Amino acid sequence: MEVKVALVSLGCDKNLVDSEYMLGSLLEKGYSITSEVGSADIIIINTCGFINSAKEESINTILEMAEYKKKGKCKLLIATGCLSQRYGDQLLKEIPELDAVIGTGDFLKLPDLIEQVKVSRLNITRNKTVIDYDIKKRVNTLKYVSYVKIAEGCNNRCSYCAIPLIKGPYKSRPMESIKEEVEFLVSRGIKEINIVAQDTTSYGIDMYGKPSLPELLKKLTDVKGEFWIRVLYAYPTHINDELLEIISCNPKITKYLDIPLQHISDRILRLMNRPTNSEQIKKLIEKVRNVVPDIALRTTFIVGFPTETESDFRELINFIKTYQFDRVGAFKYSREEGTYAATLRPQVPEKIKQKRFDTLMRVQQDISKNKNEKLVGSILTVLTENYDSKRKLFIGRSQKDAPEVDGTVIFTADKCEPGQFCKVKVTKAFEYDLYGEAVQIL
């Protein structure tokens, strides 16, 4: 008898990787995958527990899916992921519809655990991380883009972050395993590989005794095929000359670097337990742009960190205006139990956090619009991802845009297919997106 499983994946791209491996392990055991939760016999929610809004989304989704035990076919409701790892006992106690919680280090055992769940409720959160994957079991949920985790856990101990409590210490994957995964994904038609971890630039320190991301990238660029490699979550401490050189010189690596900076005030950086100060950050940005002049820089900032004053915030805004990042994301500080930052006083009121968040994003919106306007008339290489048949327009991204978090390039073309690279001449610019016309199919 066919047993249908629906999986709802929440949170970050690293969570999505875990979800894709879960799907593969279920398919191997004969389960049928469906996107229709109403017709599923088993519903799995891969939760996020990073910040309060993510926790709320995860809990609300669990409660929403629990309704299908009443009005749908659902017989088993299972929560996996970060929220399960951290709050497994509470979830089982407070949500009786849940049949099991499975943590971040046990999700690959899902098919066997389902058999146990049929007998009794389970809380499986013994292990914090898993870094060994059966690569060929992975199911791609995105057509032309994929994320590859090169490590799990984190050693940085930023004062606001609960990830080390959830995932444990940093653990790198072997280069050979990562290269094999990239080869497998490219053979399946993936055109963009996004390298992810909590801290990608610390890759290899635990396994090879030194930061080894540059060496890994060199190996990955040897993989045959036409595809991009993009580096995300590059912790500033280990961005060195070798890494910048390979980004600059290798055409397979996008001229794009995501460097989470979090703040620029030295006082706030110290309270955050960040290992860099404002002077080091500014010198790093100048160095990156000097070595890779055409690079697109993305960063993220936290507003409303405990004790953040108006002066601290104004320093951050002036920094953003001066250094003109191509892409900026922002978070309102989230008070996480078990972290040092949660003990700091005073905590910034929610109303002020929201005001600062809105101000920062308005400033960046103007910067983004100005930068995009400078691209009008230029020709960009674009990875085509979708076609809007109503408007007869193609939608893709240039090297300057990471999937899901950055802008898009919308363009016309006589002959083009999703999955192809195109040369697109930019004719219009908006705050985050570009509009143009294809001039060459690659």
How is this structure best summarized?
The protein has helices at 13-28, 52-66, 68-71, 82-94, 110-117, 163-167, 175-187, 205-208, 213-221, 241-249, 266-271, 278-291, 310-323, 350-373; strands spanning 4-9, 32-33, 42-47, 76-81, 100-102, 122-124, 145-149, 151-152, 171-172, 192-196, 228-231, 253-258, 296-303, 327-332, 379-388, 393-398, 409-412, 421-429, 434-441. The protein is α/β, with parallel strands linked by helices and 442 residues long.
Folded structure, characterized:
The protein has about 450 residues and is an alpha/beta fold. About 35% of the residues lie in helices and about 25% in strands. The protein is built from 14 helices and 19 strands. The protein has helices at about 15-30, 50-65, 70, 80-95, 110-115, 165, 175-185, 205-210, 215-220, 240-250, 265-270, 280-290, 310-325, 350-375, and strands spanning about 5-10, 30-35, 40-45, 75-80, 100, 120-125, 145-150, 150, 170, 190-195, 230, 255-260, 295-305, 325-330, 380-390, 395-400, 410, 420-430, 435-440. The strands form four sheets. A six-stranded parallel β-sheet has the order 2-1-3-4-5-6, sandwiched between helices. The chain has a six-stranded parallel β-sheet with strand order 7-10-11-12-13-14. Strands 15-16-17-19-18 form a five-stranded mixed barrel. Helix 13 links the parallel strand 13 and strand 14 (about 325-330). Helix 13 runs parallel beside helix 14. The longest helix is centred in the last third of the chain and has 24 residues, at about 350-375. It is globular.
